[in-house]
């Protein structure tokens, strides 16, 4: 019997491979990548700068402050790195090779962001306090909804981000 993730393909290894972009679908896949990259800076600035800081402030008194600051620092560093990579090469989707390279970059960046936001489901989880658990769930679901709005044109990004962000919260 197949698991949920096997049936839905959330963690399907084929999504990570550049073979998803082939000569017969290059024009469509390149257009998807360009559309995805167009909104990338807004996504990178809005999430860590506002939601990440808000999350840390809301949980400041109930979660170890060192853990909060470490999580926020790693999140900011990874997002700044992604923004730099985007700034340096975001226009490079015109050729088949460039599109495959961007596909790989996007998947790696989505995995990094998904792991960081998924880790929030573990770091910020306050056992035996339903109010903070509900607050964390609401914020995480808001981030997931934002990811779903940004990623729909690049299916591997969408599937990876939703799975990686929600799974740790569900486990908590």
Descriptive account of the structure:
- The protein has 172 residues and is mostly helical.
- Helices cover 74% and strands 0% of the residues.
- The protein has helices spanning 4-8, 26-38, 40-58, 65-89, 96-123, 130-150, 155-171.
- The two termini are 25 Å apart.
Write the layout of secondary structure elements.
Blueprint: H1 4-8, H2 26-38, H3 40-58, H4 65-89, H5 96-123, H6 130-150, H7 155-171
Helix pairs in contact: 2-5, 3-4, 3-6, 4-5, 5-6, 5-7, 6-7
Which characteristics define this entry?
elongated; 172 residues; 74% helix; mainly alpha; disordered N terminus
Which class best fits the helix and strand makeup?
Answer: mainly alpha
Q: Note the overall shape.
A: elongated
> Unreliable segments (pLDDT under 50, ≥5 consecutive)?
1-16
Q: What share of residues is helical?
A: over 70%
Q: What average pLDDT do the residues reach?
A: 77
Order of helices and strands: HHHHHHH
Strand content: under 5%
Give Rg in angstroms: 17 Å
What's the short version?
Helix content is 74%, strand content 0%. It has 172 residues and is mainly alpha-helical.
């Amino acid at each position: 019997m197949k698991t949920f993730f096997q049936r839905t393909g959330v963690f399907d290894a084929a999504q990570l491979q550049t073979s998803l972009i082939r000569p017969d679908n290059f024009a469509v896949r390149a257009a998807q990548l360009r559309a995805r990259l167009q909104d990338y800076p807004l996504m990178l600035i809005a999430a860590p700068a506002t939601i990440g800081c808000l999350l840390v402030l809301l949980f400041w008194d109930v979660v170890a402050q060192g853990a909060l600051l470490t999580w926020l620092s790693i999140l900011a560093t990874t997002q700044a790195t992604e923004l730099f990579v985007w700034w340096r090469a975001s226009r490079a989707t015109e050729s088949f090779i460039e599109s495959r390279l961007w596909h790989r970059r996007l998947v790696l960046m989505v995995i990094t962001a998904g792991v960081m936001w998924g880790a929030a489901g573990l770091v910020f989880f306050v056992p035996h306090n339903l109010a903070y658990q509900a607050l964390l769930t609401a914020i995480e679901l808001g981030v997931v909804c934002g990811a779903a709005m940004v990623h729909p044109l690049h299916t591997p990004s969408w599937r990876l981000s939703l799975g990686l962000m929600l799974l740790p919260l569900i486990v908590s």
